[in-house]
Design a protein that fits this description.
single chain, binds fe (ii) ion, alpha+beta, five-stranded mixed sheet, 378 residues, Jelly Rolls, Nonspecific Lipid-transfer Protein, Chain A, eight-stranded antiparallel sheet
Length: 378
């Protein structure tokens, strides 16, 4: 049975050659799928695919459904590892990480991120805007950078009311309630770091979620995108816990489709309502401008040079917008922590064909955040 899907249409030979060169030192990789095998070999500037061959330096075993999901950009190899649907016969995580961007380009046409190829359209990554800026300009900035910072969208009274409501939901939250994420704080206690599906139990937050200002910013790139309050964790509120926590309060570099769903989620757009201000001391958002729409090596800091990184510091009532496959992070606060951001996401209609009420790709990590965080340790 043929395993390798046809090459994605319109692949660029130069990009493929660069990808092949980057992976050649990792050796060939074999996928063992039920009783079949396929081996990918990088030689010089080319990647060849040999059906039926089982001689890669790395060999990955998985079932047919898992393979189809991987090749179809529905689930990532990290997702399959965490679900224990992928094991290594030879080689391991590092070699598969190296091959992942190449395979994503071959199978899905998602080009590997390379800062040298990044085109920011002559725009300033640090530019900020207000709601007085016209839609075409806001959309052009968001399209070029993958994120947008709009100042003063909400006033102090609106943010104070939202924070009171978050206080109420936080007081009701319990570890394991499937409506919240928790981490272990420095003193060993558990601490709340995220509330999910918030608008299903708060009329006030539902009002923010449906606010015309949020809709305007969430649909700048595509007016057909829609809210999903009852799936994909709905509208979530991030709460930055201070100190060296264990778990997923401080989120390492990631794309929001890192657990899977690229083929159906991207390019969805998240609107971040800044309920508090943010800077390095409270915890802030770090972004790689222009990285959206690309496949990014899982350990890109080890293998890419001159990657631009920008901190997006905000005041209460500001709004950040990001395309979900933008490379971004939420590092450990250097001071007291406490940033609160409410994320309202707009999705393509295809989401509703694949993800039912109460379902999310993050279901895999919500109650296992310490296990997931361990993947990021060298
Ligand atoms: Fe994220």
């Amino acid at each position: 049975m043929v395993l390798a899907p046809p090459r994605a249409p319109g692949l660029d030979g130069t990009i493929l050659a660069a990808a092949a060169r980057r992976v050649s030192s990792s050796g060939a990789i074999t996928f063992l799928v039920d009783g079949d095998a396929v081996t990918y070999v990088a030689e010089g500037d080319a990647v060849t695919v040999a059906e039926g061959r089982d001689d890669g330096a790395t060999a990955v075993r998985l079932g047919r459904r898992a393979w189809d999901d991987l090749a179809g950009q529905l689930r990532t190899f990290v997702n399959l590892l965490l679900s224990e649907e992928l094991t290594f016969e030879r080689g391991g995580f590092r070699q598969l990480s190296d091959w992942d961007p190449v395979l994503r380009y071959l199978h899905g046409g998602v080009p590997p991120y390379d800062p040298a190829r990044s085109d920011l359209g002559g725009r300033d990554p640090r530019a900020t805007f207000t709601l007085d800026t016209d839609d075409a300009e806001l959309a052009a900035q968001l399209g070029a950078m993958g994120y947008l910072h709009v100042r003063g969208v909400f006033d102090a009274g609106e943010m104070a009311a939202a924070n009171e409501e978050v206080d109420r939901l936080a007081a009701e939250a319990r570890a394991g309630d499937d409506r919240s994420w928790w981490v272990r704080a420095e003193d060993g206690s558990t601490a709340l770091c995220r509330l999910v599906y918030t608008t299903l139990r708060s009329a006030l937050l539902a009002g923010l979620e449906g606010d015309a200002r949020v809709r305007r910013l969430g649909t700048l790139l595509d007016p057909a995108l829609r809210l999903a309050p009852d799936r994909m964790e709905g509208s979530a509120v991030l709460i930055k816990v201070p100190g060296r926590t264990s778990g997923l309060s401080n989120i390492p570099w990631h794309q929001d489709c890192g657990m899977g769903g690229h083929a159906i989620l991207c390019p969805s757009v998240s609107v971040g309502i800044q309920l508090t201000g943010s800077d390095a001391t409270r915890g802030n958002l770090l972004v790689v401008p222009g990285s959206h729409g690309h496949a990014i090596h899982y350990r890109w800091q080890d293998c890419l040079e001159d990657v631009p990184v920008l901190a997006v510091d905000t005041a209460p009532g500001d709004v950040t917008v990001h395309v979900q496959d933008l490379m971004h992070a939420s590092p450990e606060p250097t001071g007291a922590g406490g940033r609160r951001t409410m994320y309202v996401t707009y999705y393509p209609a295809a989401l509703w064909d694949h993800v039912g009420p109460g379902e999310a790709f993050n279901d895999l990590v919500r109650n296992r955040t310490e296990q997931v965080a361990r993947l990021n340790r060298p």
